[in-house]
Write a structure and sequence with these properties.
Strand content: under 5%
Distance between the termini: 88 Å
Order of helices and strands: HHHHHHHHHHHHHHHHHHH
Largest sheet: none
Shape: globular
Number of strands: 0
Structural class: mainly alpha
């Protein structure tokens, strides 16, 4: 056997498993205690950012921000979760991860939470907080010993990479959403930086400079707004004049025609994040694992809505002509408790598991000859299987068995009043049947005549739920 020490080829192999240079390996960086202190501050910011993004989803009108906040809230939860695990590995029980590390950091996150509109929030988050987070991670990576602290380095390198994506989005969003009062906005951003300086920087390793500023937006107690809001493209949001489930399960209609209803159902799923955000915000005492898991599901549902948007684009159908109903999230948010909302969500998810659920939708898409529909339904089905598992882990265990959990969910959904007639009588909608014009447009794209039976479809949600079960009504 050749002694590697005498073999000149060994000198060309990177040392220290390729994770650092020899000088990095002997660099005296942070102690375990110093690592933990710094990581806890990073965790606090990630966690609070997750909460802030989530708290704005329901009431944010702009579709692009509503979906981006859903995505960014999940990413923040993931990185907070990674740091929670890492801190637990560093001789740190009890972890103390719920302790506020400095009032200056709390002040900043409270101000962001209380920002009066999406544009202001974007300028504060993407213009101040995330750049500070990026700089702090860069400083940590430059300071710690990359060999001794390799697990932390891996977590933070990954977080740093995704931060670039968040900042790229945020930079463009801030350009597109200028502040109404630029001087006031700049003064507020300077106050955020002043609070950061008072905290000794995000790391706490800098010399504190000055006091924490007095509250600005956060001078009034914050309250969560659970009323869903949509931008002007989402016209006639009370409209429940078309029941896509009835069309999907009607054997008279072709799979190709049914793809339009599949894309509508996907686009309409934006109401699930609007409801789930309320579930997270109003369940502060739930374990962290619940929040991290639900953040993933919330983003999946927003992603499904974006699939609907993309599907209509693929068919050259303008989705903006379609009334995208929001009364499911509105009614659940205003009529049920957080636990009851979760019960309804789980009951619906379980109803999607049999062959008549997500598998059926995928089979329809497969038979439609529309490749993007098949792809989207394939992933939609996979996501819903995951969501069912998350529900069993974080919902069913409160009931002892699956049947009790399902029965409760069914009862909760049956409690929700549809208000179908009231919305019409109040002049909020006429429940216009938008299907014929959308179907006609799609047939023009396909270059085929409309099926007369499909064109005449006119079933509504007046008397049945999405699972085709009769619903409570205040008509």
């Amino acid at each position: 056997m050749v002694d590697a020490r005498c073999d000149p080829s060994f000198a060309a192999v990177p040392p220290f498993a390729g994770i650092c240079t020899p000088s990095d390996a002997v660099h005296v960086g942070l102690s375990v205690e110093e690592c933990v202190t710094w990581l806890k501050r990073l965790h606090y910011v990630w966690r609070r950012l997750h909460e802030n993004f989530t708290a704005r989803i329901t009431s944010e009108p702009l579709f692009e921000l509503k979906t981006a906040f859903s995505h960014h809230g999940w990413l923040c939860a993931e990185h907070a979760g990674g740091l929670r695990t890492r801190v637990s590995e560093l001789r740190e029980p009890p972890l103390g991860l719920e302790v506020v590390p400095h009032e200056g950091l709390k002040w900043i996150l409270d101000e962001l939470r209380s920002a009066p509109d999406g544009a202001t929030f974007c300028h504060g988050v993407y213009g101040v907080m995330l750049p500070a987070l990026r700089d702090s991670i860069d400083a940590y990576l430059a300071t710690t010993n990359r060999l001794a602290d390799a697990p932390s380095v891996r977590i933070l390198r990954f977080a740093r990479w995704e931060l670039d994506d968040l900042l790229a989005f945020g930079t463009q969003a801030c350009r597109a959403l200028p502040a109404e009062n630029p001087s006031e906005s700049e003064a507020w951003k300077q106050s955020l930086l002043a609070a950061l300086a008072a905290a000794g920087g995000l790391s706490g390793r800098d010399a504190p400079l000055g006091p924490v500023p007095p509250p600005h937006f956060s001078r009034q107690p914050w309250s969560y707004d659970r009323i869903p809001r949509r931008d002007a493209r989402f016209h006639d949001p009370y409209n429940a004049g078309v029941n896509p489930e009835s069309f999907l399960y009607d054997t008279r209609f072709s799979p190709r025609d049914k793809t339009l209803m599949l894309f509508y159902k996907r686009l309409r799923e934006i109401d699930v994040p609007e409801m789930m955000a309320s579930l997270l915000v109003e369940s502060p005492d739930k374990p962290w694992g619940f929040h991290q898991a639900m953040a993933r599901q919330l983003w999946d549902e927003a992603r499904h809505s974006l699939m609907g948007e993309a599907g209509f684009a693929a068919l050259q159908v303008d989705w903006r002509q379609i009334p995208v109903n929001f009364t499911w999230s509105l009614n659940l948010n205003t009529q049920l408790t957080p636990q009851e909302r979760h019960a309804v969500l789980f009951f619906i998810e379980q109803g999607l598991m049999p062959k008549t659920g997500k598998r059926y939708e995928w089979e329809v898409a497969q038979a439609s000859g529309v490749p993007i529909a098949s792809l989207f339904q394939d992933f939609d089905w996979a996501d819903e299987v995951l969501h069912s598992q998350l529900g069993r882990e974080w919902y069913v265990k409160d009931f002892g068995n699956l049947n009790s959990a399902l029965e409760y969910g069914d009862r909760c959904w049956s409690k929700v009043m549809s208000h179908w007639g009231e919305y019409r009588d109040q002049g909020l909608t006429t429940h216009r049947n938008w299907w014929p014009e959308v179907y006609s447009q799609a047939c023009t794209t396909w270059g085929t005549p409309c099926d007369p039976d499909a064109l005449a479809f006119a079933e509504t949600y007046e008397n049945v739920r999405a699972d085709l079960k009769e619903i409570a009504s205040s008509n």
